[in-house]
Amino acid sequence: MSKENSKMEEIVALCKRRGFIFQSSEIYGGINGFFDYGPLGVELRKNIKDAWWEDMVRRRDDVVGLDSSIIMNPEIWRSSGHVDGFSDPMVDCRESKMRYRADQLFCGPVAVGEETIGWVAVLESEVMQEEANARALEMKRTQSKQGDLLPVSLRPFDEISSEERLLVPSPATGEVGSLTEPREFNMMFETNVGALRDASSVCYLRPETAQGIFANFKNVLDSGRVKVPFGIAQIGKAFRNEITPRNFIFRSREFEQMEIEYFIPPDKEAWPKYHREWIATRKSWFSSIGLTDSHLGEEVHPKEKLAHYARACTDITFKFPFGEQELEGIAARGDFDLSRHQECSGKSLEYFDEERKERYIPHVIEPSLGVDRTLLAVLCAAYDVDEIEGDKRTVLRFHPRVAPVKVGVFPLLKNKPQLVERARKLHERLRRRWNVVYDQGGAIGRRYRRIDEAGAPFGVTVDFDTVEGDGSITLRDRDTTMQKRLSEEELIAFLEEKINP
Ligand code: GAP
After folding, report:
1. Which of 67, 172, 234, 398 could be a cystine partner for 98, CB 3.0 to 4.6 Å?
2. Each residue's pLDDT tens digit, 438-460
3. Nearest Cα to 335, choosing from 397, 263, 242?
């Protein structure tokens, strides 16, 4: 197993052991693509959402909030293009009944010298080329062929010809000819609203929160004092029937998004400037929660890979253990959505610009981020194993802003009532402000290790100097393990500065 694969497995195991993330419905064998968040997971998740809301909405004059319903009139999804266009190409294996995304199934001919001796198929991954070459070597051996084996030239299944597809073996069974032609598979979950279960009652679980914002554009405009340029922000659940949910919570079927639709004037020259500004704003926000530039990258979508609504899109990527992948998409959506909703609803969604004395449909810049994907990035960036005094230590180096537990409070000894009473009092005071834990069980070193693994940035210990001496408390830093003594008031000021910058 590669080092990076094993890191991911260690993170998944830690998430379960310490109560961050569980597989949904585990006692019944689970359900693929769905997850539950445990006691530490919900705190981490809430802190990420709060940090985003604080910086993107509360501390800005030009962004307001919204919380729209998950199920909306299905006309919204017809107008937005999701009913016809929100699909991925899917391919089935007739034998094993396994299903793959055709653009993530890579295949190529195995050539020994001039002769093609068969085809291999592998699932998209960082190591798919090595995997394909190894299978090709195996094929050459089994068929006892002589000559030079060429590296396999891989292409996605949906980009090869129908004749070539007949030669591709199923990744599940190795059988040639059992894969179907790619078909478009719509990813929206359907449900029925009301007592009747027929075509007229079909509704969809939203696959993005964005459409709730577009549908409320006029309401927000009419009820507030917003002026273009301005944004509407929303945090909420989204659902996609992903063909191949994978990489833990990276791609799941139920997830949460934090999206902003930032409405700008329609001039041709305007959008690149706003687009660039939003990329910079979002990168600096990531840094404020501990995802610095060394973890991140940028990927500009080529024109032919843009979503149906976008005129440009830049992804902010994160270096996950399974490869560098999209964390957030920042799209320039033009006026596609508002124009479509105006056309299909028959209601004017124009904006009157007082300064320009002009009526227009604003264009949109859309920074769109997944809560769960951010949480996974935060976990991967924080995970570390080091050594303290010869002992291996697993530590989550969360930024204090998002850490699920901010402080562990410890009396030095549990059998000294004056230490316990003082530590409990301090715990009571700190818990009014932050999520802190009290722990009096076991040696102090053990207690530090427990909060290190939960990612608490600080530990404070009440000892005899606290109750009989100068009243000071020991503060221990998770990352350096250095300790210093502070008065209670100094401690509060220190924590305030670190946790709530
Ligand atoms: N409104 C635009 C939109 O939804 P997207 O690129 O499809 O664009 C935006 O999704 C973000 O939502 C992604 O960058 C990712 O962080 C998150 N996301 C999308 N699909 C996801 C899934 N299946 N599981 C977890 N997060 C997902």
Report:
1. 172
2. 999 999 999 999 999 999 999 99
3. 263
